[in-house]
Amino acid sequence: MTDKSVWDKEIPVPASLIAYVDDAVIAKLPPGTTPTDIAPSGASYWARTAKISATDADGNETAFFMKVHHGDHGKNMVSNEYQSMAILYKAMPELVAEPLGWGSYQDDPEAYFFLCRFHEMSDDVPDAAEFTELIAKMHKDNPSPTGQFGFPLVTYGGRNPQFFPVTKSWEECFSTGLKMIFDLEEQTQGPDEELAVLRKGFFELVIPRLLRPLETEGRTLTPRLVHGDLWDGNTSVDVNTGKLMIFDATPLYAHNEYEMGPWWCSRHKMTDQYINEYIKHFQMTDPVEDFNDRGLIYNL
């Protein structure tokens, strides 16, 4: 949910865009679907979100979730969100709401939408044992089809773009992606002398020390599909079915332990218990003595 204590700006998308169902949105619904209502649902700092109630071709009630952005940046966000969630849905449909499409409004070509099936979410975080078993299964069952790390598309953490290049080396992939995040932070906050010194040491000493051993001394690392931003704000439970759900992904093919990065952050609801349960289903990567330290750099 949005928190006015940290965000005092208007959402940069007109509320009128979720007061009706545009014809371009209707065209992305399953054949025979008839919208009956639309209402705000969920919350976002930078998009309008809505539930579209409808009847399907057989007259049964059904519902869809829509997220609307505005402008070229919004176009990139919804198109990449659709492709990201489509990859995860194909890999693990039991965990992901079916993505149906994206596009621009017929009435307003500068309005861009992402559309998927609607699930009524609870405020609960998923059960640690059940959830981590499913996440470990996703990792094990979905190695990179090319044997390479990274992702060919820019993804978005909030409104911020991030890019992990396709490469054979996890150290190179992770370092390049994280450098982009540091650069964006500096563009936003301005340069900082102390941070520049810390950054230099981190990239030149810390990352090689902790990630290079994963792929040297006879060790190999399999790139695996990860959600990429798996904290409690991007997971929930369907109130009607009890089904565990993940959303708002920033996927890439990565070292599977990268997925646990947010779980090392004490301010989150999903923390140590989830790490301890996960490694019951997917053992720690060698060298195991670096496991905790790898978690801390992935937490960044």
Concise description?
Helices cover 33% and strands 19% of the residues. With 300 residues, the chain is an alpha+beta fold.
What does this structure look like?
The relative contact order is 0.12. The mean pLDDT is 95. Helix 3 packs across helix 6 and helix 4 (170-189) runs antiparallel to helix 5 (193-211). Helix content is 33%, strand content 19%. A hairpin with a 7-residue loop joins strand 1 (34-40) and strand 2 (48-55). The protein is an alpha+beta fold. The strands form 4 sheets. A 5-stranded antiparallel β-sheet has the order 1-2-3-5-4.
Summary keywords:
300 residues; alpha+beta; five-stranded antiparallel sheet; two-stranded antiparallel ribbon
Helix-strand topology string: HEEEHEEHEEHHEEEEHH
Backbone shape: globular
Number of helices: 7
Average pLDDT across residues?
95
According to DSSP, the number of beta strands is: 11
User: Helix- and strand-based class?
Assistant: alpha+beta
Distance between the termini: 22 Å
- Helical residue percent? 25-40%
Question: What portion of the residues fall into strands of 2 or more residues?
Answer: 15-25%
Low-confidence stretches: none
Radius of gyration over C-alpha positions, nearest whole angstrom: 20 Å
Strand order of the largest sheet: 1-2-3-5-4
Biggest sheet details: 5 strands, antiparallel
